[in-house]
Amino acid sequence: MSLFNLLSVSASGMAAQRTRAELLVENLANSETTRTAEGGPYRRRDAVFESQPQGSPFSAVFEDQLAAPSVGVAVSDITVDDREPELRYQPGHPDARPDGYVAYPRINPAEDMADLMSATRGYQANVSAISAVKDMIQRSLDLMR
After folding, report:
1. Domain range for 126
2. Are the CB atoms for 40 and 85 separated by under 8 Å?
3. Contact between 105 and 41 (Cβ < 8 Å)
4. Which of 135, 1, 145 is nearest to 68 (CA)?
5. What would the mean pLDDT of 105-110 be, rounded to a whole number?
6. For an engineered disulfide with 70, which of 5, 26, 80, 144 has Cβ 3.0 to 4.6 Å away?
């Protein structure tokens, strides 16, 4: 695996974690949303990752010779929570049903905050990997001078 492939793998990880973080922030922002354009309360969304071959035009020749493809990550799907909404008794609420219950999204802010911290750390780990590869490339260039 070449250093340029390592950059592609880390970049794919950063993109995937960014998408995950955006979905988690959207979930947190809508944790009390009782009415959406689709009707009903907001539905929690989550990213599903899958491995994906990574390539770099700079290292395609080396990959062909070594037969060692590099594998990154990509968001393959965004799932929507299909569980029944949480019902709270609030008869004065504008979105209350005739029985006085209001449907709220099934979102656990503590769980989403922990997931958001995990996504942030994953993103930071990929930034660190890219920085290390950049330093290796720079040292390789310095040695060739």
Report:
1. 3-34+44-83+115-144
2. yes
3. yes
4. 1
5. 94
6. 5
> Distance (Å, rounded) from C-alpha 139 to C-alpha 134?
9
- The upper half-sphere exposure of residue 40, i.e. CA atoms within 13 Å in the direction of its Cβ, equals 13
Q: Does any domain span residue 100? A: no
Cα-based distances in Å from 82 to 77, 79, 103, 133:
15, 9, 13, 42
Length of the chain: 145
Report the range out of 20-24, 67-71, 73-77 with the highest average pLDDT.
20-24
Where does residue 49 rank: exposed (0-12), middle (13-18), buried (19+ CB within 10 A)? middle
Distance CA 97, CA 144 (A): 73
pLDDT band with cut points at 50, 70 and 90 for residue 145: confident
Domain count, the chain: 1
SS3 28: helix
Quick check: is 39 in a domain?
A: no
**In a 3-state reduction of DSSP, which class is residue 76?**
strand
What's the farthest any 2 CA atoms get from each other in the chain?
A: 79
Q: Is residue 97 part of a domain?
A: no
Identity (one letter) of the amino acid at 116? Answer: L
